[in-house]
Amino acid sequence: MDFIRNQLEELGMSEPSIGYLSNVIMVVLIALISIIANYIAKQIVLKTVHRIVSHNRFKWGHIVVQKKLFQKLSHLVPAIIIYYSAYIFPSYQALIEKAAMTYMIVIMITVLNALLNVFDDIYRTYEVSKIRPIKSYIQVAKIVLFIIGGIIVISSLIGQNPFIILSGLGALSAVLMLIFKDSILGLVAGVQLSSNDMVRVGDWIEMPKYNADGDVIDITLNTVKVMNFDKTITMIPSYALISDSFRNWRGMQLSGGRRIKRSIFIDISSIRFCNEEMVAEFEKIHYLSDYVTSKLKEIEAYNTERQVNRESNVNGRQLTNIGVFREYIHQYLRHHPKINKDMTMIVRQLAPEDRGLPLEIYAFSNDTNWGVYENVQADIFDHIFAVAPTFGLRAFQNPTGHDIVQLKETHEKEYVREY
Fold first, then answer.
1. Could you read off the pLDDT of 95-138 as tens digits, one per residue?
2. Which long-range contacts (CB under 8 A, 24 or more apart) does 287-296 make?
3. CATH code linked to domain 256-272+320-419
4. What is the secondary structure of 161-199 as a DSSP string?
5. 41, 68, 391, 407: most buried by Cβ count inside 10 Å?
């Protein structure tokens, strides 16, 4: 500043003009130095850092570059220059120092915020992040960071100790509790969800109350984001997963089997004892030949031992078409390549209804993929409906318009035949 003043005096300028012009020149010089320093920091230092990171075998280096951590940090350089140049302007020194310090605090808050994002992204590269997500904790840390940063900025501007402001916030605790109620509930819920391993990113959950049925794609401090199978997204409050009931299909996905539980309704009037012709046909069926042979021997030994009167089928034991059909379905499932043989496999009768006799298939496919599972289930029941007439059985269904038309035509033909 003295050098500039001397030069201006030699040029013959008056004192008021010298003071004003020297200040302007000094401001311009400081601005140029700050711009040059910022340019050097970004163009030289940052490029060097990026070059080192690009040749690093660790993935986290690229994440640091992507989040522009060092680029944000480079903004401190001009602020530091301005801060240490404030003494040149004694009248405005306090104001300049406060402004520069506030700017540096804001920059440090943004840098720390970016650093937290870097930690989160690095953590997500590991498989454990799906089991123990930390995004909710990162968000809590950000809230604390911004609160502390705001207090430091205010204390810097008013020239007071930050602890004085913190002590004054005690009276506002009730208001803060109300403002951050959802965040506090979300934090507690996040801890419970994580510690009890109740839900992970990638889990298929079902929560009818919120119309949620799909995969969890994100878990944050306040919400759990679910992408439904129709590609809509449902946002569920984190604490709702603690207070309400929901279904997690992870166990099914990890078990290696997905349950098939469906019934075919058999017309009860089609159920009867097997005659010799039916037995002969059943013996030709690959899955039933051994069963029919052993069952006939067992029945014959039973009836002979008890001297059963064979003149009536009611006496003793007899094969029924529904029993043979049930065994056929069981053998068919045992030989099906898409059925998990290590899990429960049952073909059972349920209580008769007005729609007929339910014959329930209870088994597990060995592929949990939704599309594959539906195809397997459809193929099995396609086959069951197709082979039912082979056993003299009819699948029940309510009369349709076509059935009524056929009945009418039959009656008309009979009427014409009679008259």
1. 888 888 888 888 888 888 888 888 888 787 777 776 677 777 78
2. 287/328, 287/331, 287/332, 287/335, 288/324, 288/327, 288/328, 288/331, 291/324, 291/327, 291/331, 292/319, 292/324, 295/319
3. 3.30.70.100
4. -HHHHHHHGGGGHHHHHHHTHHHHHHHHHHHHHHHTT--
5. 391
The amino acid present at 303, given as its one-letter code, is N
Among 95, 102, 43, residue whose Cα is nearest residue 76: 102
H runs (alpha helix) in 256-347: 276-283, 289-305, 321-334
pTM above 0.85, yes or no: no
**For residues 63 and 84, is the Cβ–Cβ distance under 8 A?**
no
What are the tens digits of pLDDT across the range 353-373? Answer: 988 999 999 999 999 888 899
Closest by Cα among 186, 183, 188 to 143: 183
Regions of the chain with pLDDT less than 50: none
Report the distance separating Cα 330 and Cα 363, nearest Å.
10
41/76 Cα distance (integer angstroms): 10
Its CATH architecture, for the domain 163-254, is Roll (2.30)
Q: How many Cα atoms occupy the beta-carbon half-sphere of 253 within 13 Å?
A: 12
Residue 334 near residue 341 (C-beta atoms within 8 A): yes
